[in-house]
Fold this sequence. Notes:
This protein is of the alpha/beta class. The chain has one domain (4-241): 3-Layer(aba) Sandwich (Rossmann fold), CATH 3.40.50.1820. The chain has nine helices and ten strands. The protein is globular, with a radius of gyration of 17 Å. The two termini are 20 Å apart.
Amino acid sequence: MTDSRYLKRTIIKEEIESKHLGEKRSLRIYLPPGYNEILSYPVVYCQDGEEFFNYGRIATHANRLILDDGLDPFIIVGVEVDTSVRTEEYAPFGNRFNAYIACFTEEIIPYVESKYPIRREPEERILAGDSLGGTVSLHIAMKNPDLFSKIISLSGAFYEKSQQLVTEESDLSFLSLYMIVGLQEDHYTTDTGTYNFVELNRTTKVLLEERGAKVQYLEKDGKHLWGFWQNELPDALLHFLK
Length: 242
C-alpha cells in the first residue's frame, strides 16, 4: 500500500460544542477522491475516530477501495474520545453513556449533515467501532432504528450488560452487522476485568440472530490490537459499501 495516490487524502478537522456532554468534541472528516458537494454520499461513523484514522488507516484504505476497486465514494466521520472517560461513554453501565448517545444522535449527526452532502437513509449510514466502540455502536443503532441499520464491530466488548440489553429486544430484523473477533482474544484484560472476547462475540451473535438481525460473523487468528483490525477494515467496508 505504498502507492502515493492512496496517501493524497482530504481530512478536515471539525469541533462541536456538546450540550449533552458539557464540552467540545473533535471530529475528523474524510472526503473521497473527486468529492463534489452537489453529489450525495454514504457515510461511515467511527467511534475512537483518531485511532481509526491513525492506526486503522481507514482513509488510506478508503482511497484504495475507491480508486482501485471501483467502490462508490463515501465519507468517513471519526468521532474522537478522551480515553480517560472512554468506558464511561461507550459501556452501557458507564455514567456518560446516555449523554454520549444523545450527543452522537442529536448533535454530531445534525452538525455533520448540515455541512456535508451525506445521505440520510438508515441504510446509507454505517456505524463502526473496535472493542467498546463496537458495543456503543450496537446500542446507538438499537436505540435509533430510524437512523442506523448497519454496524461494523471489530472485537466488540459485549459484556453482560450489553447482552442483557440485546435480550430485552424482541425485533432486531432491521440490523445488519459485520462482526469479527480474533481467536487469541480469549483472555484479554481491560480496565473492568479479564474477558473471553471470543465467547462474548459468539454469544452476542446468537442473541442478535435470534431476534432477526443479519450477521456476517468471522473468527480469525488475531489479537485485540489495531494490527489485527487494520487488515480487516477493507473487507468490513466492502461488505456494506460494494
